[in-house]
């Protein structure tokens, strides 16, 4: 959640992992057995990475709240903290793509490939709906316009990723990199100043930034869907998903308590993301550190 001081061009946004993975089928088909055996061991790596990402989100929003509501001399939207926010967003989106690779491999190994598209549609629609809920809350509290934030992005990307799931990692990278480059170019070069508000909002998901709107959370498909594809490519390459006899990562490693704790947080990033800002604001308000102004 962002406060009323959000400025145009502040594209900070964060989001959750696209899904929680669980142990595989007891009877995977030939070629998927090795994957199923190593999945639980690999899973803590991904969940721990999500745990680190959500802690970065909480830390950034604590700094943002102190800046926006407390009047502390912190520039939370540019410089170090602006970059910190972007790195956190990159981590979430990249891990979303990586998780899609693991999830697709699991569905294929369990013989659910034909129904996987429907699952992605429902999952993506649910996360997108959470994004729309945040849009309504920000509008009601006059905190700015969340036209296409991180939850909108991840929800839409889960659905859009379906045609790309069977591509090789190299092809995914070749698609993802130009999308990232094109999006960066669009954000730096074009805006919707020549269009009405309705058209501007419709163009916002594609990297054409609306003018005259305070957007505290803006992560358009261009360039960020390219990051999803890069995460998908990495997941396929690094974890050798679907390849018989492939070496799985983390098979023999026993994570420490600290890593298990991070993995626990990583398995609940969606819930933490949705509730952490209200909890932070309420706690700081009760302690007399900030004055939210609503």
UniProtKB/TrEMBL annotation:
- All residue ranges annotated as the Heparan-alpha-glucosaminide N-acetyltransferase catalytic domain in the record: 42-278
Q: Which Pfam families match?
A: HGSNAT_cat
Under the heading InterPro entries, the entry gives: HGSNAT_cat (IPR012429)
Keyword Transmembrane helix applies: yes
- Biased composition (Basic residues) is annotated at 1-10
Where are the membrane-spanning stretches? 43-63, 83-102, 127-151, 171-188, 221-239, 270-290
Q: Which domain of life is it from?
A: Bacteria
Keyword Membrane part of the UniProt annotation: yes
The name this protein carries in UniProt is DUF1624 domain-containing protein
Q: Which organism was this protein described from?
A: Rubrobacter marinus
